[in-house]
Amino acid sequence: MTDEFVVQPGGPLRGTLRVPGDKSISHRALICNSLAAGEAEVSGLLDSADCRSTMACLQQWGVEFEQSDDRIVVRSPGQDGFRPSERVLDCGNSGTSIRLLSGVAAGLPFRSRFDGDESLRSRPMRRVLDPLAQMGVRVDAAATAPFWVDGSAVTLRGFDGELPVASAQVKSCILFAALRADEPSRIVEPGPSRDHTERMLAAMGAQVDVDGATIRVHPGAPLQPQDVEVPGDISAASYWMIAAAMTPGSELSLPNIGVNPRRTGVIDALQAMGARIELSNPREVSGEPVADVHVSGAQLHGVRLDDQLIVRAVDEIPTLAVAAAQAQGVTEIRDAAELRVKESDRIGATAALLRSMGVEVEEWPDGMRIVGGQLRGASVDSQGDHRIAMSAAVAALASTPESGPTTIRRAEAVDISYPGFWRDLDRLRHVGV
Prior knowledge:
Number of helices: 14
CATH superfamily of the largest domain: Enolpyruvate transferase domain
CATH topology of the largest domain: UDP-n-acetylglucosamine1-carboxyvinyl-transferase, Chain
Distance between the termini: 22 Å
Structural class: alpha/beta
Strand content: 15-25%
Low-confidence stretches: none
CATH architecture of the largest domain: Alpha-beta prism
Number of domains: 2
């Protein structure tokens, strides 16, 4: 596709839209089932560049995949049957792939080399390599990719302590390594990051016990393959939720959305801003809470977003900032310094996006202050970040008609997590859903 996409200002969003499978759960369904010897089927899998990076790395270790549409069969010799790869494990743009697979590599009797694209090479990796080194794993001294992890000729000790950051990627890395340690591990979270890994490993037979912020892992329990039905991705749904919530007259339904309480910060934030959001048909699918989400458009108002809400809505903060730009009053976002080290500096990139569209923004090291007003069409750059590209599209839809369209450069970045995003936007923009 072209590296530019032009978005016209839009009206209310009405109808029903099914979003793609959850990216976080898709990664974990592939990895966890690869650790177990046997065969499992994953349905609803997100077919994105990031998930393909995870699959490619696992294939280099000897796992086989048979894919048909959004269903994939995982056939694995189990972690004991993994073989060393002569090539580097290229994780592309995927921080989830490189950090989670580093934990798997810690329990393998050979050296694994990891790398990624230019963006991934800029992201901090000591946050996973240092805890692995504490467990006795030999690791590269590099602070960023490329790096290597060597689990050969070492006795893998248990981990005992608090994580350096509230991060599901760091926690999952240590969890995977802890499964192969020679003693129990105690992992303490500084904040409530998403818990998909713990849920899935426990369902597959691992002895993983969660008590508040403390996770205890007792190694040795064999993992059993498990079929997984991946729910709709709440992060993907958030773009349409926010676009509908900030446009009076919208009535949008999003069925089968994963509503894990560690991920619903975006819903809590929108409701605090005055959005009308209803959840119906609550149920559990493959160990994850799922519901249908209905959003009605309303006039939003400014709020303060900070503390634990940021951890539970970290991927949605750029788009919530777009909602703040259209809301009445002032919104303050704090405690979000982690956004500085994502695929882009998402605080800087979001502030630049909003300023280019006529919004008053004061940028802070850990967040921003946004004065609500009117968005204007403009030419903007995604900075190669999929979440900035999609946030820009939401802003473009909400911009004033007289200001004209918005041109989004490097629009192909959406392929990282939502390859069908522009198609879905086109349907909403032109003919409804």
